[in-house]
Amino acid sequence: MSVPLTLLGLLEREPSHGYDLKRDYDTFFGRGKPLPFGQVYSTLARLSRDGKIVMNEAEPGDGPDRKRYVITEQGATEVNAWLAEPVAPEPNLQSILFSKVVLALMLERPAEQYLDAQRAAHLQRMRELTEIKRGGGLVDGLLADHGLFHLEADLRWIDTTAARLDALRREVRR
């Protein structure tokens, strides 16, 4: 997730205070991983330094004066370019799952146990995501579906790899 570009996109929607940006980010994009306030303000400082946002006059609030951030034309152009550019299809041909299996075989460690443990971890996460789908709204459901589909693909790969471990073991030990 690109935090700077996401914050720029939220600012293109409407000028906002840092607190409001964090709330909106956490609501839509920070599921399970809220954005720390420090990261919000350091990102806003960089965006301001780079000419992508400006600060309006400070407004009085309950505590210190609140700064309202506004996107600049440069920032809006960057958001537009980012939205138009396709995301690189994942996964890359080299994954952590693959690397661990191959290294386990090279080091004569039990790759089968690793695959079994990974399968169990994936199934647990799938149960968690299914519960999120049941109890959440549309946004949560779509995010959970995205995760579930990736986990299903990983499980198919785990099963295929487990069935081919003997052949892979011979290949990597040559």
Automatic annotation (TrEMBL):
Record's protein name: PadR family transcriptional regulator
Pfam families: PadR (PF03551)
Lineage: Bacteria, Bacillati, Actinomycetota, Actinomycetes, Micromonosporales
InterPro entries: Tscrpt_reg_PadR_N, WH-like_DNA-bd_sf, WH_DNA-bd_sf
Domain Transcription regulator PadR N-terminal positions: 7-79
